[in-house]
Automatic annotation (TrEMBL):
UniProt entry keywords in alphabetical sequence: Cell membrane, Membrane, Transmembrane, Transmembrane helix
Protein name per its UniProtKB record: DUF350 domain-containing protein
Source organism per UniProt: Azotobacter chroococcum NCIMB 8003
Transmembrane region(s): 6-33, 45-68, 80-102, 114-134
Subcellular location: Cell membrane
Primary subcellular site in the record, as a coarse category: membrane
Highest taxon of source: Bacteria
Amino acid sequence: MPDAIAFYLAGLPAFVLYFGLGALLLVLFGLIYTTLTPHREWRLIRANVPAAALAFGGSLLGFVLPLASAMRESVSLFDFLLWALVALLVQLVTFCLLRLLVPDLGRRISDNEMASAILVALVSVAVGVLNAAAMKG
């Protein structure tokens, strides 16, 4: 029985490494994203503005979908980091393009305009799904 447990736990160090790095990358994305946006997500979320939480949450999900795909498809830690960087850049560019398409996007989210928040969340997730699907090992 101990041999079976050791066998099943042999992948634990890789799990901890990839999971920890993935969590760190998610935090990094969140920090960069909140710096890039014209509105202050955390202030708005603490003030109970659902539009800010929805837009930010959708953006996080849009990033983590390709991040998970990169984790699954990568052949090395370096490969994973490269594809994670691609996912990060794609999501940041997506938000920048949305800002061009929707005038005053930051103000609209700050004013709790749900249509703008839903658009940001769903476009972020849609782009994240496409990004994840395009990552082939």
